[in-house]
Amino acid sequence: MIVYYFTSAEYGIENLRNRRLKVSDFSNVNDPFELLGIELQDKGVRKTVNFEKSQISKRYGLLCFSEDKYNPVQWAHYADNHKGVCLGFDIPEKKLKKVKYVAERLARETLDQPDCNEKLLTTKFNHWSYEQERRLIVDLNSNQINGDGLRFESFSDEMVLKEVYIGCKSELKFADISSAYKSGNNSVITKVTRPSFRDFRIVWDQSKKSERT
Q: DSSP states of the chain as a string?
């Protein structure tokens, strides 16, 4: 399935040039409730859940994608206020975890369920639902750490770049994209975006056509 990764112009070009995405650390994501979706009033439950969080964070990182490339809030929050880019990747659906958005935290009995860790990995407060998030969970042991202590996941047969959308406020040009990334068979399409005339969405600006690289 095609899923979308929003980022700034600077990092977008860097990602394209190096053919990789930065793996996020669970302890540094923007949601303080990450991996803490269970109700924690009981001290014992709190201790257990925090232990599970620490174990998951030590072993796994994540790449966050969205099912929706049109949401202007996504562009504002994650693509530098529409000055960045949105990268569309074809990833097998079975490799992606669909985030479930809930109004209330999960019951403490969740700890006794065999899919407890799965629920910890995929449960978020429903105010985040606009993200329509799909997660690619990455085993940290499979990634090399660079000099800055960062890990990256390389583009591959199971994470294939298909689309590049340039933000409606971006200064990037088609030439910037094609100079940073060449597919070899013109399989990646680049489009410029604009606000829709009809509704509150970001859409392809067809007046600027598209280019392949």
A: -EEEEEE-HHHHHHHHHHTEEEPEEGGGSS-TTTT--B---SHHHHHHHHHHHHHHHHHEEEEEEES-S--HHHHHHHTTTTTSEEEEEE--GGGEEEPEEESSPBPGGGGGSTTHHHHHHHEEEGGGGGG-EEEEEEEGGGS-B-TTS-BEEE-BTTBEEEEEEE-TT----HHHHHHH---SSS--EEEEEEE-SSSS-EEE-GGG-EEE-
